Amino acid sequence: MPVGVGYDVHRLVKGRPLVLGGVEIPFPRGLQGHSDADVLIHAIMDALLGAAALGDIGQLFPDSDPHYQGASSLGLLQQVGQMIDSHGWRVDNIDATVVAEEPRLASYIPQMKAKIAQTLGMSRVGIKATTSEGLGFVGRGEGIAALAVASLERSK
Ligand code: MG
């Protein structure tokens, strides 16, 4: 069973919506990036692509391509799911952790899980949220990090 790992960081800035796991979360700042900068979905996509040995999101969706300006990361996740499927895999399991000092994310996690599961047509999605105990760039509220692992199984 192939397993992949993904990791991503985005900076928190004023004047951007905060989108995590496809859910817009009320907060005075949002993540900076070329797409909607959904750091959780980005880590998950890299875990999926890693498990299938299909490269990474920087290769697939380069930020030099204006097509991806403001792109919904859920839409990109759907494309990754289709690639995985076309290579004869199905997603068995995803597990991820978001590291953010604030806001509190627990109440949004069920929605995030539902959106990701629906986008990929699977059901085993784990998402946890933790803080950095005030340490480092996450602890200072300068950015949000996410880690993910994914496992695949043969579909045919
Ligand atoms: Mg990213």
How is the secondary structure organized here?
Elements (H helix, E strand, L loop, with lengths): L2 E12 L3 E3 L2 E3 L3 E3 L7 H13 L5 H4 L12 H14 L2 E11 L9 H12 L4 E6 L5 H4 L3 E12 L2
Parallel strand pairs: 5-6
Antiparallel strand pairs: 1-4, 1-7, 2-3, 5-7
Helix pairs in contact: 1-3, 3-4
The chain binds magnesium ion (MG).
Structure description:
The chain has 156 residues and is of the alpha+beta class. It has one domain (3-154): 2-C-methyl-D-erythritol 2,4-cyclodiphosphate synthase (60s Ribosomal Protein L30, Chain: A, 2-Layer Sandwich), CATH 3.30.1330.50. The chain is built from 5 helices and 7 strands; from the N terminus they run ββββαααβαβαβ. The chain has helices at 39-51, 57-60, 73-86, 109-120, 136-139, and strands at 3-14, 18-20, 23-25, 29-31, 89-99, 125-130, 143-154. The strands form 2 sheets. The protein has a 5-stranded mixed β-sheet with strand order 4-1-7-5-6. A two-stranded antiparallel sheet has the order 2-3. β5 (89-99), α4 and β6 (125-130) form a beta-alpha-beta unit. The model has no long low-confidence stretch (mean pLDDT 96). Bound molecules: magnesium ion. Magnesium ion binds at residues 8, 10, 33, 39, 42.
For the record, what CATH class applies?
A: Alpha Beta
User: N-to-C SSE series?
Assistant: EEEEHHHEHEHE
How many strands in all? 7
Tell me the domain tally. Answer: 1
Radius of gyration: 15 Å
Q: Can you tell me the residue ranges where pLDDT is under 50 for at least 5 consecutive residues? A: none
Q: What is the distance, rounded to the nearest whole angstrom, between the alpha carbons of the first and last residues?
A: 14 Å
The assigned CATH architecture is: 2-Layer Sandwich
Query: Strand share of the residues?
Result: 25-35%
> What oligomeric arrangement do these chains adopt?
single chain
The global form is globular
Reported by name, the CATH topology is 60s Ribosomal Protein L30, Chain: A
Give the helix level as a range of percent: 25-40%
What count of helical segments does DSSP give? 5
**CATH superfamily membership:** 2-C-methyl-D-erythritol 2,4-cyclodiphosphate synthase
Structural class: alpha+beta
